[in-house]
Amino acid sequence: MTKEQFTSEFESARPHLKSYLLRITASIEDTEDLVQDTFIKASTKLDTFRAESTVKTWIFTIASNLTKDNLRAKKRWTENVTDICKAKALSNPNYFPEVMAINQTSQHGNFEIKEHITFCLTCISKSLPLEQQICILLKEVYEFKVAEIVEILQTSEAMVKYYLHTSRSKMVNVFEGRCALINKNGTCHQCSELNGIFNPKQDFEVEKNKIDFAKKANDPNREQLLDLRFQIMKEIDPFNSNGSDLQLHHIQHNRDVMENYSEKNEK
Predict the structure, then answer these.
(1) Ramachandran quadrant class, 51 (left: phi over 0; alpha: psi -120 to 50; beta: rest)
(2) pLDDT band for position 99 (50/70/90)?
(3) From CA 30, how far away is CA 231, in angstroms rounded?
(4) What are the pLDDT digits (tens) for 208-230?
(5) Do 1 and 42 meet the contact criterion of CB atoms below 8 Å apart?
(6) How wide is the angle at C-alpha 121 spanned by C-alphas 116 and 127, nearest 5°?
(7) Closest CA to 248 of 110, 94, 141
(8) Residue 26: is its pLDDT beyond 90?
(9) Gyration radius of the chain over CA positions
């Protein structure tokens, strides 16, 4: 493979690679650095590519290894991340003026329920062990096959299937107890609360019911609801969507809050 061919393949994979790395790291800065580091490392190792996998799989393997090195020493987020970050936002007098400014001045500052479902899924997934988070995103959002994930994670097929089963079970259980869209007793009401702030004239119930996910919220099949969440995530590029600027602000805020939270709890 020539350098020109590789560069073309890399640019085709870049949008998915960026969104994948953002959802793993929850850091815009780390994502940009990791994309660049992946390109450099892959460029210098072109002679090792044997075409036994797709170029995209090879690129994601390099990126995943770099990301694991970057995150290995960092604590995973807690399942109640949305509560912790919401409390911090409410105690910060600058938070809502900042997000309202984004909402009112940016072409990509719209709040949409789909965007928040994706944002929430990103945050909750960071409570999983790192390999499980990587595995479930690769399979459910980026549509890699099990055999490709085996290569990316450099593990066995049995371990990949174990990671998928365990991570799905945990995600279903977390959302069952926390998502107010599927459980009126859920503790997270941010979708409706934020919709009321950003779209005060909009009927939340009407907008919510336009989404297949919400239409099926009373269905006892929680596995299907998780799949619908992932389907929504597939459709949204966090760097290029109607609400990307707002979502990136929320992600960076939660990242900062959870890093400070971890530091305090280590003392």
Answers:
(1) left
(2) very high
(3) 25
(4) 778 877 777 666 688 888 999 99
(5) no
(6) 135
(7) 110
(8) yes
(9) 19
Q: What is the pLDDT of residues 133-187, one digit of tens each?
A: 999 999 999 999 999 999 999 999 999 999 999 999 999 988 887 887 776 666 6
Q: How far from each other are the two terminal CA atoms of the chain, in whole angstroms?
A: 51
Cβ 88 vs Cβ 255: under 8 Å: no
The token pair at 83 is: 């509560």
Q: How many CB atoms lie within 10 A of CB 4?
A: 8
pLDDT of amino acid 113: 87
| Residue 25's pLDDT band (cuts 50, 70, 90) | very high
Residue 171, strand partner residues: none
Q: 174 with 124: CB under 8 angstroms?
A: yes
CB-CB contact of 208 with 181 (8 Å): yes
Domains in the chain: ranges and CATH: 1-74 (1.10.1740.10), 77-266 (no CATH)
Return the axis-axis angle of helices 28-44 and 55-71, rounded to nearest 10°.
Answer: 130
Max CA pair span of the chain = 58
Question: Amino acid identity, residue 130?
Answer: L
Instruction: Kindly state the tokens that stand for 62.
Output: 């390099």
Which tokens sit at 117?
Answer: 């479902």
What 92-96 contacts at long range (C-beta under 8 Å, 24+ apart), as own/partner pairs, is: 95/253, 96/197
Query: Which residues touch 246 (CB under 8 Å, ≥6 apart)?
Result: 99, 102, 103, 106, 108, 109, 110, 111, 115
Contacts of 96 (CB under 8 A, 6+ apart): 89, 197
Neighbours of 224 (CB within 10 A): 14
